[in-house]
Amino acid sequence: MGRKNDVSYSQAEGWHITITLTESDACSSDTITIPKEQVEAKLFPWWSVKRSEGLLEPNSFEMVHLYEYESQITTAVAMKRDENGNFKLHGWSCVQGKRKFRTGDVIVFWWDKNFGRLNFELLMLANESFLT
């Protein structure tokens, strides 16, 4: 789906961040965790140095527009580094409340340089094969 000028999943090849949802991602948490290596390799190159370095400061966060590619719904979330150095998207429960993702579902994220947002879509349902 998507709109004109959206950076699609296929256009972002090589820049995908693929996450298999844990029980807390799908059920009880307000956050979803993205490994620091993925954020540093796949998002930071698209961000300004100031934004990237700012996120590494203690107690700092960045507001990120999370855009579900299929439904075209945007949700503002706060990205913050956790005690292990990984990054959490705070506000994930707003997305989860609309979609009801399940433990084991595979979500793919990619940066949309045209709109300055983090696109995502469901790539694979739990215990099934790839959707795209």
Automatic annotation (TrEMBL):
<protein>
    <recommendedName>
        <fullName>TF-B3 domain-containing protein</fullName>
    </recommendedName>
</protein>
<dbReference type="InterPro" id="IPR051442">
    <property type="entry name" value="B3_domain"/>
</dbReference>
<keyword id="KW-0805">Transcription regulation</keyword>
<keyword id="KW-0539">Nucleus</keyword>
<dbReference type="InterPro" id="IPR015300">
    <property type="entry name" value="DNA-bd_pseudobarrel_sf"/>
</dbReference>
<keyword id="KW-0238">DNA-binding</keyword>
<dbReference type="GO" id="GO:0005634">
    <property type="term" value="C:nucleus"/>
</dbReference>
<keyword id="KW-0804">Transcription</keyword>
<dbReference type="GO" id="GO:0003677">
    <property type="term" value="F:DNA binding"/>
</dbReference>
